[in-house]
Design brief:
The complex is a heterodimer of chains A (about 160) and B (about 110).
Chain A (H helix, E strand, L loop, with lengths): L5 H5 L7 E2 L7 H14 L6 H14 L3 E3 L2 E2 L2 E4 L6 E11 L9 E10 L4 H14 L3 H9 L3 H9 L4
Chain B lengths: L2 H20 L1 H9 L7 H14 L2 H11 L6 E3 L14 H6 L6 E2 L6 E3 L2
Parallel strand pairs in B: 1-3
Antiparallel strand pairs in B: 2-3
Classes of the chains: A alpha/beta (about 160), B mainly alpha (about 110).
């Protein structure tokens, strides 16, 4: 898979699609909270379809990859355009992560059923690559505003 | 939108996910990223449950279409079928009820007005 430039990756993020203080404390409620946030921002046509799709995706295998990060993702007819949402839980929560540790940050990546499949896999791949860098990850755990998030994502020295 | 149409859309989302997992290149890529794709049987069970709830005739139409298309049911946006991008005739909109599924005369996909 081709790698993506940082600027291209950041172009998929939107300030309105960031939650820096998640309220939820459980796996299913965090999915509901982030999907509701997308609905409020008019990115999806039906919350129910997306929640069901994400639940099904979790039954395939947890998207909590460990090290405090999860990447819920999938495709649905109810998604209007490719959307990336960032969410952070300061205390972390049980997301059935592969390493059993609490999950603190979430990158939700959704694509419409009929297009964008290649792009969403490329975004997923790029983000997973980024969080392999311990300094970047540490900063992401503490980020509380959009400008700081963008800076962390584009900083090559982190 | 009718409940049975909602079932069909949920079924299609699930079918697309199952197709991705069964696709060797995609599943290999996801696994190389660290995802464990161990729950295919759970997805298939969920699919069976949804299929049982879907009216037989509608399910058969949908399954026939999925032999040719990944996306068999689509919303109408503008005046286009987003499956084949052919402009829908004016008669399509005058005849259509918001609650009824229609068929694209060009490609045969199922269409609904969101």
């Amino acid at each position: 898979m081709k790698s993506m430039e940082a600027s291209k990756l950041i172009s998929f993020f939107e300030e309105d699609l960031c939650i820096f203080h998640l309220r939820s404390r459980k796996k299913m409620s965090v999915l509901t909270e982030i999907v509701h946030h997308l609905a409020v921002n008019n990115k999806i046509s039906d919350e129910h379809f997306i929640i069901e799709m994400l639940k099904n995706r979790e039954s395939l295998g947890s998207t909590g990859l460990g090290n405090g990060v999860a990447f819920p993702h999938g495709r649905s007819l109810a998604i209007k355009e490719l959307s990336v949402l960032f969410a952070r839980s300061a205390s972390g929560l049980d997301f059935d992560a592969l390493d059993g540790k609490p999950t603190k940050i979430f990158f939700l990546i959704l694509a419409p059923s009929d297009k964008g499949s290649e792009t969403y896999l490329a975004i997923l791949s790029e983000l997973i690559g980024l969080i392999q860098k311990p300094a970047k990850l540490k900063n992401l755990f503490e980020v509380t505003d959009y400008q700081a998030l963008v800076k962390i994502l584009e900083d090559k020295d982190l | 939108m009718r409940d049975e149409h909602r079932l069909l859309i949920a079924l299609q989302d699930l079918d697309i996910m199952i197709k991705e997992v069964k696709d060797k290149a995609t599943s290999k890529e996801l696994q190389s990223l660290g995802f464990k794709l161990t729950g295919l049987s759970e997805l298939q069970e969920a699919r069976e449950k949804l299929a049982k709830k879907t009216p037989k005739g509608l399910l058969q139409r949908y399954e026939k279409l999925t032999e040719h298309f990944t996306v068999a049911i689509l919303p109408v946006t503008g005046n286009l079928c987003l499956g084949c991008f052919v402009k829908l005739p004016t008669s399509f909109f005058s005849a259509v009820s918001r609650n009824e599924l229609q068929t694209c005369e060009n490609c045969g996909r199922l269409l609904y007005i969101p």
